[in-house]
Amino acid sequence: MTAREANASDRERRDLVTGQVMDESRLIRFVAAPDGGVAPDLGRKLPGRGLWVAADRASIETAAKKGLFARAARAPLKAAPDLAATVENLLLKRCLDQLGLARREGVLISGFEKTAQAIRSGSAAWIIEASDGAADGRGKILGLARHAASLRNGDRVCGVFSAEDLSLALGLENVIHAVLLAGGRADRFTAEMARLAGFRPLRPQDWDQVRPSARVAEGSGTGFGDDPEGEP
User: Fold this and answer.
1) Is the separation of the CB atoms in 112 and 231 below 8 Å?
2) What CA dihedral angle connects 62, 65, 67 and 73, to 10 degrees?
3) What is the pLDDT of residues 170-215, one digit of tens each?
4) Beta partners for 38?
5) 3-class secondary structure for the chain?
6) How far apart are CA 50 and CA 37, in angstroms?
7) N or C: which end of the chain has fewer CB within 10 A?
């Protein structure tokens, strides 16, 4: 975590919708745009007075519909009807950017076998599974994750991105399974994912169902032959 991010994590702001004071990490910053609109500032770098809203879809939609941005800014600001969707897309990009940086730094590894090994070693901070990957391979990986203390009982599993999304972000082909190793980059990814969770589930609910193939992965080390998705 950078010094700027560390300082930001210690600051509190007031949510426009509820009036609740909370840490900046739980909020989205907006500023008045030159055209009279409302611009998201996810990096907290744009000039101007910050207008802070809780990082979830319902809060942003409420602020836009009730004119709370204009009231807080004391200016005739008009928020776009799709402002929440815009924020969600920006958060998705920021999360993928974090994964791309992690790969270049050598703290993200991909491939079925390497992912399984990292989980078993206790070095995995996040499991990244393609949303459209085959259930068999995913079940084996998640079976291992259920027994990994470093994954906090499974809440560090990301199933938001498709194989195409991951492949483009990482500059690789056919990315189905990946692991983000513990460290500063994982902390930054965690912060971005926490905000994204206010807009969409971080993994499908049916992934929590244990399939028979997953029990093989939970055993003594068998069942990890060829990658079922054919990933290098």
Assistant:
1) yes
2) 60
3) 999 999 999 999 999 999 999 999 999 999 999 888 887 655 444 4
4) 32
5) CCHHHHHHHCCEEECCCCCCEEEHHHEEEEEECCCCCEEECCCCCCCCCCEEEECCHHHHHHHHHCCHHHHHHCCCCCCCCCHHHHHHHHHHHHHHHHHHHHHHHCCEEECHHHHHHHHHHCCEEEEEECCCCCHHHHHHHHHHHCCCHHHHHHCCEECCCCHHHHHHHHCCCCCCEEEEECCHHHHHHHHHHHHHCCCCCCCCHHHHCCCHHHHHHCCCCCCCCCCCCCCC
6) 14
7) C
**Using one digit for the tens of pLDDT, what is the confidence trace for 83-129?**
999 999 999 999 999 999 999 999 999 999 999 999 999 999 999 99
Other residues' Cβ atoms within 10 Å of the Cβ of residue 66: 13
User: How is residue 55 written in tokens?
Assistant: 């990082």
128: Cβ contacts below 8 Å, ≥ 6 apart: 99, 108, 158, 161, 166, 177, 178, 179, 180
Query: For position 155, what pLDDT does the model report?
Result: 74
Burial class (CB in 10 A: 0-12, 13-18, 19+), 206: exposed
